Amino acid sequence: MTSKVDEALSYEQARDELIEVVRRLEAGGTTLEESLALWERGEELAKVCRRWLEGARARLDAALAEEEAREEAQEQSE
């Protein structure tokens, strides 16, 4: 479950922290417990990023649909 703090993160903040988590995991040298905690944090950050991207996609789709509707209305009035 994503915390309220995570929900307040901007896309860029979540992405940057996720990059750092991945870097630390790839570097190794952590205990199993630390690695699991990093993995779990990475999963939460990925969810935050996914929500931001899905929201952006929805806004783009809505804007494109609105523009298309405007163009169709203009064509019908001509």
TrEMBL record:
It catalyses: Exonucleolytic cleavage in either 5'- to 3'- or 3'- to 5'-direction to yield nucleoside 5'-phosphates. It is an enzyme of class 3 (hydrolase). Pfam families: Exonuc_VII_S. InterPro entries: Exonuc_VII_S, Exonuc_VII_ssu_sf. Heterooligomer composed of large and small subunits. The gene is xseB. Its EC number is 3.1.11.6. Its main location: cytoplasm. It comes from the Bacteria. Belongs to the XseB family. GO terms for molecular function: exodeoxyribonuclease VII activity. This is Exodeoxyribonuclease 7 small subunit. The keyword rRNA-binding does not apply. One of its GO terms (biological process) is DNA catabolic process.
